[in-house]
Each structure stands twice: as C-alpha cells, then as structure tokens.
Specification:
The protein is an alpha/beta fold. The protein folds into two domains: 209 residues, Spore Coat Polysaccharide Biosynthesis Protein SpsA, Chain A (Alpha-Beta Complex), CATH 3.90.550; 74 residues. Helices cover 36% and strands 20% of the residues. The protein contains ten helices and eleven strands. α7 packs across α9.
Length: 321
C-alpha cells in the first residue's frame, strides 16, 4: 500500500483524524523554553498489518513530535518498506534498520531495538520521550491530553492512556492498575527519565521503570478517559502459555515478593483461559529462580516493591491504591 493511500476503510477501527498538527507547538508542561518538545522511539518487528494505522494516528496528532525514530527490528515482511515510505514524506520521521536476529526476544530484544533508536535521536532538548509500539491507534489529541495531565501535576513522571482491543464491533478494555502505564504507550517526563536512569534492558523493564519512579517520589498514572486502540491483544502473538511464562519471568527479574506472586497466580486461575495463564505465571517465576536468572541490581528497589506488594495484600495504602 502506498503512503498516500487512505487506510481507514480497512476492517480495523480507528479514531477520527484531524488536520495535521505542528512540531513543537506551544503546550503546557514544557521546559520553559516556549514550546513543548517531544520525541518518539518505536521498536517494531513484522508489523505490516498495523504499522500504517499507528503512523497515520501520529501524523493526525494535534501536536506533532519533534522527531520520531522507528526502528525496524529485523522484520521479514513489509515493515521496513512502510517505514521508509513514511520517512520520505515526513522529515521528522526517521528509519533505523536492524539485522534479523531470527526471532522475537521479549523484553531484551525490544529494549535493544529501542536503544538503537534512542541513540539515533538528533534532538537533544526534548521535554518528553515516548516509547510507542507499532500496533496501536491513538486519538488525534492523545499526546496533547497527556501533556495537559503532566502540566496539571508537576510530579507526574510517567503517564499514558488505557488500552482497548477491538471486539465484536466495539472496544474492550484491557484492565491494569492505575499506577501502571502499558509498555506500548509510555510517556516520560525528562526529569523522571533522568532520575530512573532510563529503561532496563531485560524483561520487566515496564514495571521497574514506574516502581523506581514512585520510589523516587514521582507519580505514574494511566488515564481511563484517554483511549488507545490495541490492535493486537496482549499475548496474542505468543499465545497464553508463552506470554504467561514471559510475564512470570519478568516478575521474578523485577523482584516481586513470592507471596504476592502466589496470590496473583491464584487470582488468574479464575480468569480465561482457566488455569493456563496462572500455571504459566507460576512456572515462569519459579523456573527463573532455579535457573538463577539475574534480578534487577537494585536492593532498595526490590525492598520497595516487596513492601508495596505486602501492603497491597493486606489492603493497606500502596502504589496500587
């Protein structure tokens, strides 16, 4: 499909577009230099089915990024060609192409691709950085509304909307705790990004970042009134067993308390597909222990997350609220 081809008549839902915005327009929450500047880094692999939808939804934003690096992580389909076509049309879109390593590597592979894009950024004076996946659709004012939330709360360090998957002609919420911002759609304030030291190059990065932010006095929040379409449901690519094992392993790497993980597995027994995800979570967590997979190298962070999890188990105030 050529760049100029309209995609919204395909059988995927999309938010109604607007006239294209402008990079660096005046927005609340900027560094005080007059304009809010944000950059996006998108690691993508084999996303030809959804990537054009994602790019169109960014192009339609009321506030455009200063720079968007889209990293083709060794795709075997048309993903790389799609990126090149849009990069030729929009000067603020840049393509980075990586060699095919043979397979998806959850967590580690995504972060390797992300940092290839991060180190390719030319913009040095950004106020916000965004990690955006290639299988999402955004409302035209998505970034503008997120920046407004940052402006309203100077201690808000990470934010994003809530993700919804297409189902039976409508949209179904993918629930998550309010403090947790989903990995595909994370916005970071620069001060928070610097404080947490960027992102961990391992599974669990999208838990460690916000737990560390909360430990250091920042707030993190997903806002239910800001919607994002997630075209590929979570875990659909790998299946419930492999995705569950991945999540259990990520929980171990992040330093989860064993009691909290056990309670989480019990809860998942009663969620579809029954028993499978719960067993996969438990297997991923326990097998990581016996394989001696390295955990996050931050004892203070592990103590903090375990303390918060115990408070959650006893219905006390915690980052879970």
């Amino acid at each position: 499909m050529a760049v100029g081809t309209e995609i919204r008549n395909e059988n995927l839902p999309a938010f109604e577009g607007t006239e294209e915005g402008s990079p660096g327009v005046e927005m609340p929450g900027s560094s005080g230099q007059g304009a809010c500047k944000y950059v996006i880094v998108s690691p993508v692999r084999d996303e030809e089915k959804y990537l054009e939808h994602t790019i169109r939804s960014v192009v339609d934003q009321t506030v455009l990024p200063t720079e968007w690096i889209i990293v083709n992580d060794g795709s075997r389909d048309r993903t790389g060609k799609i990126i090149d076509e849009f990069a030729a049309k929009y000067p603020w879109i840049k393509a980075v192409h990586r060699n095919d390593r043979g397979t998806r590597v959850p967590g580690t592979g995504v972060m390797e691709a992300f940092y290839d894009g991060f180190h390719s950024l030319k913009s040095a004076d950004w106020d916000f950085i965004i990690k955006l996946d290639g299988d999402v659709g955004l409302e035209p004012d998505y970034f503008q509304r997120c920046f407004e939330r940052f402006s309203e709360d100077p201690k808000l360090g990470i934010c994003g909307g809530m993700m919804y998957t297409p189902e039976k002609g409508g949209l179904k919420l993918e629930p998550n705790p309010a403090f947790h911002v989903r990995g595909p759609i994370k916005l970071y304030r620069r001060g928070c990004w610097s404080a947490i030291g960027g992102l961990m190059k391992a599974p669990g990065w999208d838990t460690v970042d916000e737990v560390q932010a909360n430990r250091l006095g920042w707030r993190t929040r997903s806002f239910p009134d800001i919607k994002v379409i997630h075209y590929r449901p979570t875990g659909a690519e790998q299946g419930p067993w492999r995705d569950g094992v991945k999540m259990g392993r990520a929980a171990y790497i992040s330093g989860y308390h064993p009691l909290f993980m056990a309670a989480k597995c019990v809860k998942r027994i009663f969620q579809k597909p029954y028993f499978i995800v719960a067993t996969a979570h438990g297997y991923g967590f326990v097998s990581a222990y016996f394989k001696r997979i390295p955990q996050v190298q931050d004892p203070e962070l592990i103590r903090y997350i375990r303390r918060q999890q115990i408070r959650r188990l006893f219905f006390l105030d915690s980052i879970w609220k």
